[in-house]
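Worked problem 6 (solution included).
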Amino acid sequence: MIHIVFQEADIAALEKSFELDETLQGDIIQIKDDYAVGPLTDLYTEEGVAARKQWWRDVLTGGDYDGHADTGDVDDAKTVAELKERLGNNADEFIWIWAAQNKHDVSGYYWLMSQLKDYQGRIFILYLNNLPFLNEKGNLFYPVNLFEIPAKEFVKAKKLAREITPSEFEVDPDEWTKTCNENKGVRLLEGGKKLVQEDYDFYDVELKKLVTGDWQKASKIIHTHLTKAKHTTGDAYLLWRLKLMIAQEMFDVQGTVGKMKEFEVKQKAS
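Solution. The predicted structure is:
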């Protein structure tokens, strides 16, 4: 059995459940890119992959994750090639895709399953779509991320596993293709598996509101966005957007613009 997850924190959470239920034992593989942001044009071609990598390189340059685009740590195309090889070499091998109710997981699901049509009947989905679970205190909650679920609840969640249907293998890749062809920069989850798209500057409005008349470190502004905004994304993306607005001289700035803790911003002095 191969488990697929889309966030690093999901790995440890799922591993804990193996101790409670041996039937869940399997390899856990993470799809590492965040397909909820960035360009998707020609995503399954060498040119498209290179363009997306260059975009990430531009986003991360000079920030806290400078150089990460070139470490080789994120190579989802290679991961899928290895998955296909395993499925091809072992007719008894199968995949469980775990996805929670968030844009990151759902975007990753579309990206992945669109490449696995040849293995119908062996690809399963566990989609935690508006389903209640019990937290550590025994209270009902609706997890947004897989890693929020206690290990004992994963044992229950396995009952949700179902084959991705032939119909889904027809419809979902078409929906993903439409999404890719729209050429927008931000994807949001509207409900179910429905993604809607916005432009690259979507998160700028809330970021601007958090810049006040007092000096604040960029790290504080980004942390506030991550914890309080209705829609948010990774800190690297938010830092990139903040730096672009600074480059347009929207704010006063002091310190060296780069890593989040190395500079401060405030509203333009009148």
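Discussion: Residues 45 and 116 are 16 Å apart (CA to CA).
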